[in-house]
Structures are given as structure tokens and as C-alpha cells.
């Protein structure tokens, strides 16, 4: 079954929250129109309805639509009453079944939907923690929390639903917690965590050990060393990584499960003669392989550029003013499902269009949209 058809089958299994016998439109019709229209560029309820009206004849090839296209208020109400956990489960099951073996590096990071909050009304912006497959660019799962300070709890709730065996999990400093490292290793994964001020004794121990090692040219430490050089747009950036085996005698390291490596990454940037540098220290349960750990560290930031930036620029997520909690959460999940759909069908040939460009083409050309979904045959959903 194609990813699009499999997704539709999972959406069809979502429990209808409405009162039986008092519904005018089928739930799967509403969810399908919402999905198709967001894929075509819709940013809100009104645009979902307008897209449905413009494409009603084509939609009737797949949907029953017993009472025509649902109005924007109907679509909004469905997103308000639908339990976000159902759509979250749909995303998790869909990616897990369609792409079960793609998670070599899993980046976990948080993001707020800024437009969902209101200082005047005392409403905090919705915050969520997302697990992202850095190589494929797919969203694996997400966990919501009321604010950034609750990210640790959200990460702890997110990890058990992920398939971590054989994966390297990267998290920024907030995720450097013994319990989180324990959960990752117990589930067959490895961790790469930043040692910073939120774990001061760990950070100091790692920094001191690596500083002494560097001062003595890493003598007797059997270091793994790897360096990259990137040049372009008037910028020269060097990344120098040293990974060494974690020593047994440092008591501060004993709390961290299956810890194998201490890592030092120095980034030097030269922009038009202005040189700046930054040094980062990390710990990992993976073997001290500098090339692998440096690449994993770089891939962690794919969640910023490949997911957060794409959601804000292409899907205008931060500009969304949907403020009712369920509706905000469900709309956010729908955006991530749509992004996954686009990335599951990479373009062939020399011309590789961006996600934004492909979304525009889907809005202009329904044939292209339904081809992305692989719903080209006339089969009822």
C-alpha cells in the first residue's frame, strides 16, 4: 500500500468525537479535505473550504460528500473536538509502518507555535517536542507540553513510543538528564548529549579532562580526530572534532549509563576576515568515532533547518492564530504529516524543486496533488 493510501486508511480509523445521528458530513471526508487542502497550500479553515469547493468534482471521485463540501465552521469544530492524541497516533503508526528502518540519527528538539499564544488573554503559546529522522527529513512523533520548561517531561514521554534500536539520539542541553540517557540505552539506542551548565559538575569534568588532553597533544588518550572545512558565500567554517574513551576514574561520569565517549567540537568561522570560534563538549554512549559523532552533531541541526524553518517559512506555522488548544495541536500535526508526504515522494530528474515549490504546484495542479498521494485510481476512500 502506498504511503498516501496507508495514511488515509489510518485517518479512516480515527474515532468520531461527535454525537451519533447528529452528523451531516462524514469524518473521513472532513479530514481528507483538510489534508489535501493543506498539501495544496491552505493555511486556515476558510481556505480549506474554498479549496474543497474549487475541487468538488475531483473530490467526489474519492469521497462520498453526501451533503457537499463541509463549511469552514464545520472543519474548525472537528479540529476543536478531535482528541490530538488520535492524530498523533496516526502520525506515529503511519511513519513506523511505511518507513520502519530510517532512523539512524534521531534529533529531538522543541518548538513553539508562537501565534497560538496571546499575552493580552494570558494564553501561552503551544509548545511541542518533536522526534525527527535527520537523514530522511521525516517527523517520527511529537509530544506537546504547555511551555518550554516542561520539555524534559515531554522528552521522557516521547522516547517510549519511538523505535530506538540501532539509532543515535541527539538532544540539546535540556535533554542531558540521566533518566533520559537511561531510557535511550535501555531501548537499544545510543545518545549524544551536550554537556553544559544545566549539568555543571558533568560539564566541568568533561571540559577539564579534554583541556588537559589537548594541552598534552592527547598523549596516551588514543584520540579519534576528524575535521571538516566548508567554504562558500564569503564564509570559511572549520569544524574540528576529537573523541576519546571516557575514563573510568572520573566519578562524575559514573552516573551516565553505558557512557563510552567524551567529545570536543571546535567550530571556527571566518567571515570577511572576522574570525569567531566556539567550543562544545558532549558525552555519548557510542564508541569514540570522531567522524561519526561530528556528523551526528551536525545532523542534529537539520531539525532546525529542515523542520522548524520549513514549518515557519513554507507552512507559516508561527503566523497561525489558531488558538483553541485542540485545534492548534491538530493543525500542527497535520502540517507535519503534509511535510512527511512531500518528503516521502522525492522528485526524480535533474530539477529538484523545494518543498515550498512542490506545495504550490500541488495547489495549482490537482493531478500532481493526487499523484503525490498516489490516489490516481478512481477508488473511494
TrEMBL record:
Q: Which GO terms describe its biological process?
A: DNA transposition
Name listed for the protein in its UniProt record:
ISAs1 family transposase
Against PANTHER family, the record matches this protein to: H REPEAT-ASSOCIATED PREDICTED TRANSPOSASE (PTHR30298), PROTEIN YBFL-RELATED (PTHR30298:SF0)
The organism of origin for this protein: Paraburkholderia hospita
Q: Which segments does the entry list as coiled coil?
A: none
Q: Domain Transposase IS4-like: where? A: 103-341
Q: Name one GO molecular function term.
A: transposase activity
What sequence ranges are listed for the domain H repeat-associated protein N-terminal? 10-95
What InterPro entries does its record include?
ISAs1_transpos, Transposase_11, Transposase_11-like, YbfD_N
Amino acid at each position: 500500500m502506498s504511503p498516501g493510501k496507508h495514511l488515509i486508511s489510518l485517518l479512516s480509523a480515527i474515532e468520531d468525537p461527535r454525537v451519533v445521528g447528529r452528523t451531516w458530513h462524514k469524518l473521513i471526508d472532513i479530514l481528507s479535505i483538510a489534508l489535501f487542502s493543506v498539501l495544496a497550500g491552505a493555511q486556515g479553515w476558510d481556505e480549506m473550504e474554498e479549496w474543497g469547493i474549487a475541487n468538488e468534482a475531483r473530490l467526489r471521485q474519492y469521497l462520498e460528500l453526501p451533503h457537499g463540501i463541509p463549511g469552514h465552521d464545520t472543519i474548525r469544530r472537528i479540529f476543536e473536538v478531535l482528541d490530538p492524541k488520535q492524530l498523533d497516533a496516526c502520525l506515529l503508526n503511519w511513519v513506523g509502518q511505511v518507513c520502519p528502518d530510517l532512523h539512524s540519527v534521531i534529533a529531538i528538539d522543541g518548538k513553539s507555535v508562537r501565534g497560538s499564544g496571546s499575552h493580552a488573554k494570558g494564553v501561552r503559546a503551544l509548545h511541542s517536542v518533536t522526534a525527527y529522522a535527520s537523514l530522511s527529513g521525516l517527523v517520527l512523533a511529537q509530544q506537546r507540553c504547555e511551555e518550554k520548561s516542561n520539555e524534559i517531561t515531554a522528552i521522557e514521554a516521547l522516547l517510549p513510543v519511538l523505535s530506538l534500536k540501532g539509532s543515535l539520539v541527539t538532544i540539546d542541553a535540556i535533554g542531558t538528564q540521566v533518566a533520559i540517557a537511561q531510557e535511550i540505552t535501555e531501548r537499544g539506542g545510543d545518545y549524544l548529549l551536550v554537556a553544559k551548565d544545566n549539568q555543571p559538575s558533568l560539564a566541568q569534568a568533561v571540559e577539564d579532562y579534554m583541556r588537559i588532553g589537548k594541552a598534552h597533544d592527547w598523549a596516551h588518550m588514543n584520540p579519534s580526530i576528524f575535521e571538516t572545512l566548508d567554504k562558500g558565500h564569503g564564509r570559511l567554517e572549520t569544524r574540528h572534532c576529537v573523541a576519546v574513551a571516557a575514563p573510568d576514574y572520573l566519578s562524575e561520569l559514573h552516573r551516565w549509563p553505558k557512557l563510552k565517549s567524551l567529545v570536543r567540537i571546535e567550530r571556527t568561522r571566518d567571515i570577511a576576515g572576522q574570525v569567531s570560534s566556539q567550543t562544545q563538549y558532549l558525552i555519548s554512549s557510542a564508541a569514540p568515532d570522531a567522524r561519526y559523532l561530528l556528523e551526528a552533531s551536525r545532523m542534529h541541526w537539520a531539525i532546525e533547518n529542515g523542520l522548524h524553518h520549513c514549518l515557519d517559512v513554507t507552512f507559516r506555522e508561527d503566523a497561525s492564530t489558531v488558538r483553541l488548544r485542540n485545534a492548534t495541536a491538530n493543525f500542527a500535526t497535520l502540517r507535519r504529516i503534509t511535510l512527511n508526504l512531500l518528503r516521502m515522494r522525492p522528485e526524480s530528474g535533474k530539477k529538484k524543486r523545494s518543498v515550498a515549490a512542490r506545495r504550490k504546484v500541488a495547489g495549482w495542479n490537482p493531478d500532481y496533488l493526487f499523484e503525490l498521494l498516489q490516489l490516481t485510481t478512481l477508488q473511494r476512500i
